[in-house]
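Ticket #4471: complex job returned nothing on first submit. Input attached below:
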Amino acid sequence: MAGLVGLALGSFLNVVITRLPQGESVWGGRSRCPQCRSPLSWYDNIPLCSYVWLRGRCRSCGAAIPWRYPLVELAGGLMALALWHTFPDKLLLLAYAPFGLALIALTAIDLEHRLLPDAITIPGTILGLLLSLVLPQLSFLEAAAGALLGAGLFYGVGRLYEKWAGRRGLGGGDVKMLAMIGAFLGVWALPLVILISAGLGTLAGLIRVLGQGPGDRGQWRTISLPYGPFLAAGAGCYLFWGERLLNFLSGGG
Ligand SMILES: [Zn+2]
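Support reply: We reran it on our side without changes. The output follows.
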């Protein structure tokens, strides 16, 4: 059941990911083929299944449906399954389900548009703070400190980088996304989230540099990658394995 709900939520996320960067309303309006704009009937809009039996093409115009659609649906389903298994205390899902969905949406939008929309990160931060007040399992102090420190740290690092490299490194969107992560996961999560995301980002940057021709290798300073997906990966790792990782690092096994 959790997986099916996740697939449906993933399908809704696709609507958000397609419409939000274009300034369209996320609510209401039938789903349409992005190519020919013909409205989709319900049976062509079933998560994963429709993609398979349409063989990845629009029924009306035959345009290829981007890979992102089934991938995001699958990500929603797997996220829901993982959350359901990881947290026996289902009340916590009130916080971690919207958080997980926001991470998937931000990842996809950043990859497609190099953009982390305020329309997700700011309400996300507020929601994280509010839920930490309401849910006894969460601490408001840790959430508030997480949001403040997350935003402050990244803002500071961004300014330093600008001075050193003479160009913008971290965008304002990254700052707000880390504030949101701090609000949901609390201040103690931040060192590990930053460590993991920086590690993965460096690795991806290296792969990019090595993949370029030898003549371009001097250009490593100008390599730029969207950072949102790495932040999301760091936050996801912490959400699912944070306690085990911290135990491991502190030698507790
Ligand atoms: Zn079409």
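The chain has nine helices and no strands. Closing as resolved unless it happens again.
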